[in-house]
Amino acid sequence: MKPIIPTTALAAAAALVTVGFGTACGGPASPSMQARDDPSPVFNNDTTRYPSRQHENAYEAGWSYLQYGSFSRDALVGQLSSEAEQFPPDVAEWAVAHLPADYNVEALEAAESYLEMSSFSDAALYDQLTSEAEQFTSEQADYAMAHLSG
């Protein structure tokens, strides 16, 4: 059995270097994020953009992570509320809830990344996507497996 390797750890390291730069650096945008060039969340009431500076910072950090890696919703909340980022869990939840990410596409990107690094059976790749490290839902992993080329 192959070890479970969290791609989120690699993405987190890359994102730590780029947090705060967002798309201003011209970094590669994840296909799930390409529909929006502006990382600002869409609110129904434009008079209140962010509840606080901390919410804005968590949102921007989450945006940066998604620009440079593939994250499940739960893994992204975990990263933002981790010892490294230290956003309160409710702030991390709020930020991730407002990001315009397609987590089916994120799962597909993670699967493709794993297959670029190593050879996986379908069962092992599915297990990797739904592992504690990646935390994609079974529906997202099913989507990824169904949309892999080849």
UniProtKB/TrEMBL annotation:
<dbReference type="InterPro" id="IPR036388">
    <property type="entry name" value="WH-like_DNA-bd_sf"/>
</dbReference>
<feature type="signal peptide">
    <location>
        <begin position="1"/>
        <end position="24"/>
    </location>
</feature>
<keyword id="KW-0732">Signal</keyword>
<protein>
    <recommendedName>
        <fullName>Putative host cell surface-exposed lipoprotein Ltp-like HTH region domain-containing protein</fullName>
    </recommendedName>
</protein>
<feature type="region of interest" description="Disordered">
    <location>
        <begin position="30"/>
        <end position="50"/>
    </location>
</feature>
<dbReference type="Pfam" id="PF07553">
    <property type="entry name" value="Lipoprotein_Ltp"/>
</dbReference>
<dbReference type="InterPro" id="IPR011434">
    <property type="entry name" value="Ltp-like_HTH"/>
</dbReference>
<feature type="domain" description="Putative host cell surface-exposed lipoprotein Ltp-like HTH region">
    <location>
        <begin position="102"/>
        <end position="148"/>
    </location>
</feature>
<feature type="domain" description="Putative host cell surface-exposed lipoprotein Ltp-like HTH region">
    <location>
        <begin position="55"/>
        <end position="99"/>
    </location>
</feature>
